[in-house]
Amino acid sequence: MNLYIDYTTEIAADMEQTIKNELVQNLELNKNRNGVLIMFLSTSNLTKSYNTGIITHVLKGVGLEMKRGEIGVILGPSGSGKSTLMNIIGGVDRADGGTVEVDGNRITDLNNSQLVEYRRESVGFIFQFYNLVPNLTVAENIEVVSNISKKPLKTDEMLSAVGLYDKKNRFPRELSGGEQQRVSIARAIVKNPKLLLCDEPTGALDLETSRGVLSLLQKVNEQFGTTILMITHNSAIAGMAQVVFRMRSGEVAEVAHNSEIIPAERIEW
Question: Per its UniProt record, what Pfam families does this chain match (predicted)?
Answer without folding.
Answer: ABC_tran
